[in-house]
Each structure stands twice: as structure tokens, then as C-alpha cells.
Amino acid sequence: MAEEEKKETKGAKEKILIIEDDRFIAKMYQTKLSLEGYTVEVAENGALGVEKIKSFSPDLVLLDIIMPEMDGFGVLEAIRDDDAINSTSVIVMSNLAQEDHLKRAKALGAKDYIVKSQFTPMDVVNKIKDVLAR
Fold this sequence. Notes:
The chain is an alpha/beta fold and about 130 residues long.
């Protein structure tokens, strides 16, 4: 029971939505964030992600850019243009490392931009904590 209580206080049960089409990456982060005490859901493409944002009301979204149906930039535009969800915090987590992608994501409202190959799962957790604390 003490372990359950510890899990609940860690991360304060904030809700995180992972929008990622790579199932391995999505599962890895879902497991890591759940162990950190967050409530986590996954959407495997951008279109499903936008719908999940509306139904799940996450405190933060981890968003990939290259995905089927709607890419991450389309998701950022949908979030920005919808008054019901435009206060949602988003961290882009992508393989795209070009400066123009980072600038575009930030211009569309992303709070941070992570290049997947340059961050460990614990680094991502720390970024999440930082963004949620803002």
C-alpha cells in the first residue's frame, strides 16, 4: 500500500498524452512515465491525437512530427485553432533536428522541442517536469 501511495504522489497524477506512431517508442515512454506516477495514454497518429486531447484533457502532450494521417505540425495547428484545447502544453519529440522544424514548432505553440536521439527517457521526464512547473 505504501508503494501505491508513493506512486500517486510522484508526478501528482498529471495526465500525459503521447502522440507517436512508433509503437516501441510510445510503449517505452508510456511505461517510463507511468512508473514516474503520471497517467498516460497513447494515440498512434495525429488525427487520433487531436481527438484524444479533447477527450482525455492531458496536462501535457508529447508529440512526434512525422506521422500518418496528420503530422505533428498539423496537430499543433489544430490545438492552436481550437479554443477548447489551445492551452494544452506540448513538447515536440522528433527525429527531425533541423533548426527550421524547431522554429516552426515553437511558432505553432510548442513549449519545447526534443530531438529523440539526443535525449534519454530520464531527460524527457525532466523536460516534462520543467514544462509542467511553468
